[in-house]
Amino acid sequence: MAKEERLKEYRSKRDFHRTPEPSGDRETMSEGPIFVIQKHEATRLHYDFRLEVGGVLKSWAVPRGPSTDPKEKRLAVATEDHPLDYAGFEGIIPAGQYGGGTVIVWDQGVYRNLKESEGQSMEEALERGLAAVWLEGEKLRGGYALIRTRRRGKDEWLLIKMNDEQAETERVITLARPESVISGKTIEEVAAGTNHDR
Ligand code: MN
Fold first, then answer.
1. Is the pTM above the cut of 0.90?
2. How far is the CA of 170 from the centre of ligand 1 (A)?
């Protein structure tokens, strides 16, 4: 599928004259595929987990956020593909716009497809409903599995830390490290900052 086709749903939901989010016209160049996790205080707080695949960011909304504990299975609901330049977006989506609320870049980095050794591209692994990636983020590192469950007819997945040396069961990473990896600000500080500017 061409990028223009993949981003159709993303663009149809947004008025780019009213939201500061990117329209996806820019081509982003980077070393290897990127991942990003954005903390998003919308109607409900969630974490948007995004992986660069085929020129777009494949996306999942994770209500409880990622865990570093292999025993924790985190629900991840597939959402529409986002443009690559969305990975750097941090700020306020105006009220009344799609996803209205505050966004911070909670973690970012590059990743590797762990199914590559079995001859599967990321597209194929996601198509089959079982992907495994090695994250090299500032907060999250190591293997993570994405497993499709299709519970209640929705495109639901589970995001699970794989049991490797990067697994960490003592600390709750979302509480220990709430801040943006771009600005160092918490989502509350980013939200409050914009109010002061008005
Ligand atoms: Mn979101």
1. no
2. 27
**CA 118 to ligand 1 center in whole angstroms:** 32
pLDDT along the chain (198 residues), means of 10: 85 90 70 92 96 96 98 96 95 92 96 96 96 97 94 84 96 96 95 63
Structure tokens at 195: 């109010």
Ligand 1 centroid to Cα of residue 61, in Å, is 6
Checking phi first, is residue 146 left (phi over 0); if not, alpha (psi -120 to 50) or beta?
beta
Q: What is the CA(119)–ligand 1 centre distance, in A?
A: 32
pLDDT at 154: 72
Using the mean position of ligand 1's atoms as its centre, give its distance from the Cα of residue 47 in Å: 7
Question: Helix or strand or coil: residue 179?
Answer: coil
The answer for residues whose C-beta is within 8 angstroms of residue 106's C-beta and 6 or more apart is 37, 38, 39, 47, 65, 139, 174, 178, 180, 181
Q: Residue 20 has what pLDDT?
A: 86
